[in-house]
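Format notes (please read before filing issues)

Several people have asked whether sequences and structure tokens are stored in separate files. They are not. Every record keeps both together, in the order shown below: the sequence lines, then the token lines. Line labels are part of the format and must not be stripped during preprocessing.
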Amino acid sequence: MIKWGLSIIAVIQNNIVLLIAFWTIGSLLKSIYYQYYLSFRFFIDKRLILNSIKEGLSVYLSGVVSFISSQVERILTAYLLGPLSLGIYQLVALISSVPYSLLTSFNYALLPSSTYYSYKGKTLPEITSLSFRFYVLASLPTAIIALGLSPFFIERFFPEYSSGISSMELLAFSLTASVPFQYLSTSLIVAKKNLRALLLISLISALEVVSLSLILIPSMGIYGGAIAQSINNLITSFMLMFASVKQGLFEMKREEVNSIIVAFISLLSFASWELALIALILAIKLLGIVKKEEVSMLKGLLPDAFKGIARIFNYLAK
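Then the structure lines:
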């Protein structure tokens, strides 16, 4: 809340020092909270640090490259089109990333839980499949709704940025719809079979964004940047799925194939988001993406505040 909420004050004041101060204070308070309430005490283990760097170097580097690929079209927008276009694109890109950020936050829980259940006897492909399919149920309707409501949101609160509506629609949909596929990187990390695959995927996606942005932004403006980033989401999703299948972490059974079919059905939202949402719900129900017993298992793991989500999933289950 301090990092994001109070940062608005720094932005209004146009004070970069205040912005850095709020972020630093927020991180410091979080660290103090963890240190006080958790039974963890900070210590330095050189051997553990060296092993972590050795085993996770590919993951660390892929994270750096992924960050660059997610920001490069903004840099090129500023360079090729100027600060005005950058301001419009930056706003719509940030707003469109909100559903994506909320959904991917579950990855922080799925990573340790995947490790836990693998030790309890569940195979990693089983865990990956179940998590992937539940992500499909959560992300695809959210992506369609985000696409449908984004024009009203911009016109109501930021009418000066209306020229960025089409870019926001595309980014909101592509980012949110790619969440189930982005989750597959979690299984690659848990398995630790070939972490270099993550680095290779990140490098390919970064090259794609740079190349397409240089081609499309001069002729199509900020919408060209949105297209470049959306194609990047599609390519990255395909490569993550291919790497997961190749390493035996994700099996293409009937439920998984149906999940991918459902993902393609959601593309109808660019014609009519209302009809696409209805078609998606019917397809999820008829194709049996998840079973009622799987929803019951999920319900037992959720806190009371999230029981409503389980009820929605139970309605969509077959």
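For reference, the curators noted about this record: The radius of gyration is 21 Å. Residues 46-81 form the longest helix (36 residues).
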